[in-house]
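I hope you will forgive my troubling you with a question about protein structure. I should value your view on which stretches of the chain appear to form regular backbone elements. Here, with my thanks, is the record as I have it:
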Amino acid sequence: MPDLDIVYKQQCMEWMHKSVEVPSSSDPSKTYTVTADFSETRRRENEYHCTCKGYQFRKMCKHVQHVIDNKLICDWHQMWGMGQSKEEKENYICPKCKGKTEVVRVGV
């Protein structure tokens, strides 16, 4: 197996630390929480999680799909997302949502 090089790249902090409330389509008094979790320890598991029963059984649900389809959580990463300006890179600013970025290690 070839050796991996470790490089440091930026990614949007929303990607790892954001939750969104999504209303139930069947009961307007209920909401479900969809959370993004792209941390290194969960990389091989689902990246989104929902508090609804459907998600518990299928590991996917319409609430997660709603968040993905409507881009409610920014998923920008320097490895495959749009480029940053020099100012954005120096000040750790996401070019997609203008939120804060953080530096992560990536094996290439």
Residues 41-45 have pLDDT under 50 and may be disordered. The helical segments are 14-17, 53-58, 62-69, 86-90. The longest strand covers residues 6-12. The first helix runs from residue 14 to 17.
